[in-house]
Specification:
Elements (H helix, E strand, L loop, with lengths): L12 H17 L5 H8 L6 H14 L4 E5 H6 L5 H5 L5 E4 L7 E4 L8 E4 L2 E2 L27 E5 L14 E5 L10 E12 L4 E13 L5 E22 L4 E5 L5 E6 L3 E22 L5 E24 L9 E3 L1 E7 L5 E8 L5 E25 L2 E26 L3 E6 L2 E6 L11 E26 L5 E24 L11 H4 L25 H15 L1 E4 L5 E18 L2 E21 L6 E24 L2 E12 L3 H4 L3 E3 L6 E3 L7 E12 L6 E11 L3 E10 L2 E10 L4 E15 L2 E14 L16 E11 L2 E10 L2 E6 L2 E5 L2 E11 L4 E8 L5 E6 L4 E6 L3 E9 L1
Parallel strand pairs: 4-7, 11-15, 12-17, 30-34
Antiparallel strand pairs: 1-6, 2-3, 4-5, 6-7, 8-9, 8-45, 9-10, 10-13, 10-44, 11-12, 13-14, 14-18, 16-17, 17-20, 18-19, 19-22, 20-21, 22-23, 23-24, 23-25, 25-26, 26-27, 27-28, 28-31, 29-30, 31-32, 32-35, 33-34, 35-36, 36-37, 37-38, 38-41, 39-40, 40-43, 41-42, 42-45, 43-44
Helix pairs in contact: 1-3
Length: 869
């Protein structure tokens, strides 16, 4: 469906669709005095990649907000399999690629949790599959393949009729509608094979679209399907940092008290068989010439059976009573909070090595049912929309085997350095490790929301105010989390002990030498998957005892009511909008808490509410037709993540630590401004610069303190509001130019200067999620039915949360991607994509130089055919 026609061929149905969607958005959001001008915008003809860029720039020029648009044609021309990867090409956006495919986005130097994504103007319930994933308000882009998208609009300045909840930016994903297609019957299908370099596997993927409408264009139906399989492998080296403080005693009996020590670390090899099936069904009716009703259903179902095998060294994991660690020749560094941290030495021999294979049966499901209607009257327009969305995610099983062996282990830690020597054994020898225990985690995250809204706009024949718009919106949502834990060990009925040799048939693959240093462990004896299923899982069924983790349960209910008024204005060279949005938020956080400190959990409920007034102003001054000045001021807000707002406490499955929420966290507020200039100096070309500033009244950091959790003293980490906020100032530059002869380029760069106020304890924290520099650059060529694009995406180092006396910092990341397409016939195209050509690694250390993790996802290549009828 992402065919790229030559510039002189007829308009393809797909690009015509994207043009119709985008033109309708531009018309409805722009105060245009002359209706013939609106008609001319809707009639922009799109024939190729350059023409697509031209239409995108026409939308940007005509919009009142500061907004960037990516059309379906653009999504198709990028080698992107989900929407997050496509969004990384937009100015000011960077993407989290921890799992090799974009899942969360960062906008203009703000954290992923301060941005919001909607589908057709409404929230989509999201969930996650991994046990360690926090339940955020972010959109899980894993669920939405790019093939189902009509257009993406990224709003960086708000208007009163846009939902509140984002500080960085609001992304609205629009799906197609049946009556927007030119022909009465349209069919599109694509099939491809994707080769993943690291696992050395090839997987099939296909998508299809069938659209029909009657000749009178009063009724239509669209069915879009997508089925993607992908075999993933991610190699890594890890250090499990911990905020517990120990007393270290060396070989001479000398004690060093109050010292941080990692629980341990290892060499994980993560594999996942991912299958994503998505269905989008849309029915549309136009009963009269001035009315429109559409019903949209989206269902995304993703299964992710995965296996993680990790060969582990331990430090804090070998703790003795009174938090004593015995380490020969220990080495320390001093962290930012003045506490020493262990970075080397020799431990053991008892349990000096461990091995943990994990098998997960994970899933993520999301569903949307949305009813939307529009009615145009004499000088007015009514829009109504109502629907429901739900999601579930987690794991049916998360089976873990725990093997240990006796050996001395010498550890050496430094930035991007994870080195270990097992002095009394060979890691390739499986006979040295014995099964000590097993556990199973069954986790389920649920999310749902019902919503309804109405918008009424009056078009006025006035000299200044061109229209006035009023609206009401109600949202009723709920999220929940629960986990059931199964345990088994010696003495359990049906327990059977193994050595690793009983489940192993040879060594693991060797992990990338690009991630390793001289002393890193890169190969070890591991579990054969078939033997794990035939021997290990059978033992699970007999020996496992299950019980709910009562302290981890939570349910958060949220009811949001909003009302707004907005006015569009235009006079002479000026146009824009202004108004205010009023929002009332009511939250109730329910959880089980250990009220007596002995594990006797009882339900508690904590409620609170708050009201926000969010004014905004957008203004555009047209110096001449090709040169615009833009400005915007606004007050915005974002709500805390659900995990942070929970009243629950979750104990780590690896370390002695626990994490907990804080249901009384204050939301984020920011006063922000934008000022920019846009020069449309040539056909399909733009040169622009936008300065912006955001002043946040608070941000979230974590603090750790020793607490009694079910009778055990543990370091518990909780989120807190900083006593001062943060300031993010920056500039966004865009250069887009069609050079002629089929050549063109698209370049954008964003600089942000982010600073925070002091925390309650006087320490300062870098703004979480911020990258000082972001660059997106593409060069494309199209001629005679052939097109090719080479793209580069870069973001400088970015910051995470507090960690073992310092703060996490992920190193700069730059990735090369490429795509090409060749029209074999007007209906059939051959295409090829390449992702992460340079096999860039993801590296995280603390600001004090403690390594946290380095991961390799490898490159991916695909070859496919795309047909249109």
């Amino acid at each position: 469906m992402n065919q790229h026609p030559p510039r002189k061929k007829r308009l393809t149905q797909l690009v015509a669709l994207a043009g119709a969607v985008a033109s309708h958005v531009a018309w409805s959001q722009t105060a245009i005095a002359d209706p013939t001008e609106a008609a001319s915008i809707q009639q922009v003809e799109v024939k190729g990649l350059r023409a697509t860029q031209k239409r995108n720039l026409a939308e940007k020029r005509d919009a009142l907000n500061i907004v960037d648009t990516v059309s379906a044609e653009d999504v198709g021309k990028f080698p992107d399999k989900n929407v997050a990867d496509a969004l990384q090409r937009v100015p000011g956006i960077s993407v989290d690629r921890t799992w090799g495919e974009g899942r969360d986005i960062f906008v203009r130097g703000t954290d992923k949790n301060l941005n919001m994504t909607q589908l057709n103007g409404q929230n989509v319930a999201s969930a996650y599959w991994w046990k360690n994933d926090a339940q955020s308000r972010g959109f899980n882009y894993d669920i939405l393949p790019s093939e189902l998208v009509g257009s993406l609009d990224v709003y960086k300045s708000p208007s009163p009729d846009l939902d509140e909840g984002s500080i960085g930016g609001l992304v609205i994903v629009k799906t197609r509608k049946p009556l927007q297609f030119k022909d009465a019957l349209t069919a599109q299908v694509s099939a491809e094979a994707t080769y993943s370099e690291l696992p050395e596997k090839t997987d099939p993927q296909w998508s299809g679209l069938l659209n029909w409408h009657n000749e009178a264009r009063t009724a239509g139906v669209l069915l879009a399907l997508s089925h993607q399989k992908r075999t993933m492998r991610r190699d890594g080296l890890e250090n499990f940092t911990d905020s517990t403080k120990y007393t270290v005693i060396d070989e001479n009996g000398r004690a060093t008290p109050n010292v941080y020590a990692s629980w341990g670390g290892g060499t994980p090899i993560f594999r996942q068989d991912r299958e994503r099936k998505t269905v989008n069904l849309t029915l549309q009716l136009r009963p009269t010439a001035n009315s429109d009703v559409s019903l949209n259903y989206l269902h995304s179902d993703m299964d992710m059976d995965n296996n993680n095998q990790n060969y582990l060294w331990q430090i804090g994991g070998l703790v003795e009573p009174n938090n004593v660690l015995r380490i020969s020749r220990p080495r320390f560094i001093t962290t930012s909070d003045g506490t020493q941290s262990v970075v080397g030495g020799t431990v053991g021999p008892v349990n000096g090595v461990s091995f943990e294979p994990i098998y997960r049966e994970a899933y993520v499901k999301s569903r949307v049912l949305d009813l939307e209607g529009n009615l145009d009257g004499d000088g007015w327009r009514l829009h109504v929309q109502a629907g429901t969305t739900s999601a579930a995610g987690g794991s049916e099983h998360d089976r873990n085997f725990w093997f240990t062996g006796n050996t001395r282990a010498t550890i050496n830690l430094a930035p991007d350095t994870y080195e270990v020597q097992y002095l009394d054994m060979n890691p390739l020898d499986p006979s040295k490790l014995t099964l000590q225990g097993a556990r199973d985690w069954i986790r389920r995250m649920d999310s749902k929301e019902d919503y309804a809204q109405g918008d009424l706009e009056f078009f006025l024949d006035r000299a200044f105010i061109k229209s006035v718009k009023f609206g009401l919106k109600f949202r009723d949502g709920e999220v929940s989390n629960r986990r059931i834990i199964g345990t088994a060990g010696p003495g359990s009925p049906g327990w059977q002990s193994f050595s690793l040799a009983d489940l192993s048939t040879g060594p693991s693959p060797q992990i990338s030498q690009k991630a390793a240093t001289a002393g890193s462990l890169t190969q070890f004896a591991w579990v054969n998957d078939a033997l794990a299923a035939s021997k290990g899982f059978a033992m699970y069924d007999k020996a496992m005892t299950y019980a709910e983790a009562l302290g981890e349960y939570y349910r958060i209910k949220e009811r949001i009511s909003a009302a707004y008024v907005k006015a569009n204005f235009a006079t002479g060279p000026w146009r824009g909008d202004f108004g205010v949005r009023l929002v009332r938020t009511r939250q109730t956080s329910q959880a089980n808490q250990d009220l007596n400190g002995r594990g006797a959990y009882a339900p508690v409920s904590i409620g609170r509410s708050y009201t926000d007034a969010l004014p905004s102003l957008n203004a555009v001054y047209e110096l001449r037709k090709d040169l615009l000045l833009r400005g915007a001021v606004s007050r915005v807000m974002a709500r805390n993540t659900y995990s942070d707002l929970s009243a629950s406490t979750e104990v780590s499955g690896t370390t002695n630590a626990a994490t907990a929420g804080n249901p009384l966290l204050k939301p984020f507020h920011a006063n922000q401004w934008e000022l920019g200039a846009e020069w449309y100096f040539s056909d399909a070309s733009l040169l622009s610069a936008t300065a912006f500033g955001k002043h946040l009244d608070t941000f979230i950091y974590t603090s750790t303190a020793i607490e009694n959790v079910a009778g055990v003293q543990r370091p518990v980490t909780r989120p807190q509001n900083a006593d001062n906020g943060a300031t993010v100032n920056g500039v966004e530059l865009q250069w887009q130019q069609a050079f002629g002869n089929g050549l063109g380029s698209i370049v954008n760069y964003t600089f942000t200067d982010a600073k925070t106020g002091a925390l309650a304890n006087g320490r300062k924290l870098n703004v979480v999620g911020n990258s000082r520099n972001q660059l997106n650059a593409s060069v494309y060529y199209e001629r005679a039915g052939f097109s090719a694009r080479l793209s580069y995406n870069y973001r400088s180092k970015s910051y995470g949360g507090l960690n073992q006396g310092g703060q996490d910092v992920t190193s700069a990341y730059g990735q090369w991607d490429a795509s090409a397409s060749w029209d074999l016939t007007p209906q059939l195209a051959l295409y090829a994509n390449a992702v992460n050509l340079n096999n860039e690694l993801i590296r995280t250390n603390t600001t004090d130089g403690l390594p946290v993790g380095v991961y390799e996802n490898g490159a991916r290549y695909s070859l496919g055919l795309r047909a249109k009828f």
